[in-house]
Amino acid sequence: MKSAWLKKEDTEELLILFNGWGMDRRIGDHLLKESRCEEFTQDLLLCYDYSSVELDSEVLEEMRHYRRISLIAWSFGVWVAQQTSLPPVTGAIAINGTLFPVDAEKGIRPDIFEATLSTWSDENRQRFYRRMCSNSQTLALFSCMSPERPASDQQQELAQLKSLFLHHSATKSAWSYDHAIIGGRDLVFPAQQQFAAWKGVPATIISDMPHFPFFHFRNLQEVLACLSK
Q: Which of 81, 119, 133, 195 could bridge across to 138 with cysteines, CB 3.0–4.6 Å?
């Protein structure tokens, strides 16, 4: 996978943001800009482009110097984060994703996943983004931070994720998610599947939130506040 230090000022606390499939750093840059307006104090590491579930060894070594590590994961990043070797995580939030990424009852239906993978193109990408955002207002916001990656590159990442799903079925992390945020209008990971996947885990349900969640959360502090609910 790729990672990028969006903020690194040698603070005592680190926030790791696991992005969704097909994304790049632009969502992270947007969230950091909005968060700095509210005195965001943590360092921020963004993870994306999941060709593997391993972080660079140098990045891992730098992470071990933090006293506290929090984690926010969105979409397929929810599963990837749990497969990644990380230092101890003190608080973790899953947004519109599950630990069963391709699953008829707790994730994305296998036939829908396969159709997305086999037909991915520039044209179908735009359809997917509209579905991901659900309405024109959210799509307009997403368009300001949509990934600058070719469709072929995103398709290759999705194919690699399929291979990872097949070979990394068991979660190996010592930590678990403390809170799930579920969008009632998520058309990618439907709310019913998320409810089934997160039984017993404290959850925030936002009835009108689509799969893309960062219209409802202005900044990272608003997401982290869910840990105190």
A: 133
